[in-house]
Write a structure and sequence with these properties.
With about 130 residues, the chain is an alpha+beta fold. It has one domain: Holliday junction resolvase RusA (60s Ribosomal Protein L30, Chain: A, 2-Layer Sandwich). It is about 20% helix and about 30% strand. The protein has 2 helices and 6 strands. The chain has a 4-stranded mixed β-sheet, with helices on one face. Strands 2-3 form a two-stranded antiparallel ribbon. Helix 1 crosses helix 2. About 20% of the residues are buried.
Length: about 130
């Protein structure tokens, strides 16, 4: 299969930590995380994402463009602030499960970065590229 690239017009969202309710002993995923994963799945399907076969090693490149706060100087390109990059990555990889790959354990190489969205970029977004290793 050939490489696939997706431009997802969705503001990067960090994966929320699972919550535990002592009274019931149940664990749940925060609603914001569930809705962000569902939105990313919908965008991937709408852009024609094709599934790679199980066991196929994959290379993934992710770029997260986040909104620049008004207080951030223009000379700063990469935000060294929270949310953490790995939380953004986890959300996208989990959203791709069952759509692009059967399981994100197939990913053998990952390159990710976050930067401020520029004026001509169209706002906060996520770029995803996937190819066979």
């Amino acid at each position: 299969m050939t490489a696939q690239a997706f431009a997802l017009p969705w503001p990067p969202t960090a994966k929320g930590r699972p919550r535990f309710v002592r009274a019931t002993g149940r664990t749940y995923t925060p609603a914001e995380t569930r809705s962000a994963e569902a939105a990313l799945r919908h965008l991937l399907i709408a852009q024609g994402a094709a599934a790679y076969p199980a066991g196929c090693p994959l290379v993934v490149v992710l770029t997260f463009r986040v909104r620049r706060p008004k207080s951030a100087p223009r000379r700063i390109v990469h935000p060294a602030t929270r949310p953490d990059l790995d939380q953004y990555v986890k959300l996208v990889l989990d959203a791709g499960n069952g759509i692009i790959w059967p399981d994100d354990a197939q990913i053998v190489s990952l390159r990710a970065g976050k930067m401020f969205a520029r004026d001509g970029d169209g706002g906060p977004s996520i770029s995803l590229e996937v190819a066979e290793a």
